[in-house]
Amino acid sequence: MLRFLPPAAAAATGILVGSAMVATRFVIDQTAPASLAFLRYLIGVCCLLPAVLLSERVRFARRDLAPIALLGITQFGILIALLNYALQFIPSARAALIFATLPLLTMLLATALGHERLTAEKTLGVLMTILGVGFALGEKAVQRGGATQEWVGELAVFASALCGAVCSVFYRPYLRKYPTLQVSGFAMLASVGFLAVLAAGEGFFGAFPRFTAGGWLAVVFIGVNSGIGYYLWLWALNHTTPTKVTVFLALSPITAAVLGAAFLAERLSTMSLLGLACVALGLWLAHRHGPASASECGAQGGGPLGNGSSPLDR
Question: Long-range contacts for 210-214 (Cβ within 8 Å, ≥24 apart)?
Fold first, then answer.
């Protein structure tokens, strides 16, 4: 039973990301993008902080501080900034479809570095999830926008997906060396510092944020969602291969479509249901042979939940 925990954690992350997308669409017109991202991850850090303080103190080697901080800044700062920039040029549906290549990029990078073995079934599974996302988004994913240089937006989204793939692979040595909770907290804290600079440029610190009551609930939901989701994401990366974790991001647009239909009166088409079926088939193919071996995923010792000493790791 415990061998299914890493896929379950990755699946939960994909669903949490999708639900955060819907909440973001609800509140984004009440603030600026960087300011919302700053609040989001500040709340996420606050959610992780009690568990970090209650856990055994971990001292990071000085040479590891900058790489872990850079991974956090890349994943939460640069990646989001590239996505926001891209949306000035291309529709959000096409951006989501391009971003869905993240598992494919992760698989190729992890294979090139010798972290994973490239198999036909895993490759087909990843491609099926991308196809499923395409079906779920429908014709919106390929319709042309109004910008004259759409290739700039497409390139920015691809660079954003590449950032996600790089982070998914290069977290590995630090997750082997330190407990997941402490890595999560420190990386997210570094991203908050980076996002604070961007938020300041939007005038965030000039006045107290003005949200409606529903807007504040959405912001808190997104922040808590981010703290829990990021921890689960890194925990899953520590116990299976990067591809088998990132492939579950295909659940994000599916979740967003379902919740958008339920709460935002958005239409759920037959193509969306076909997309869900393709994503489910792709996930099954990518995980058909069960969890990766210990040598492949590099999981920590001390049992299937690793050797971290925090309450969340037990």
Answer: 210/30, 211/27, 211/30, 211/31, 212/30, 214/26, 214/27
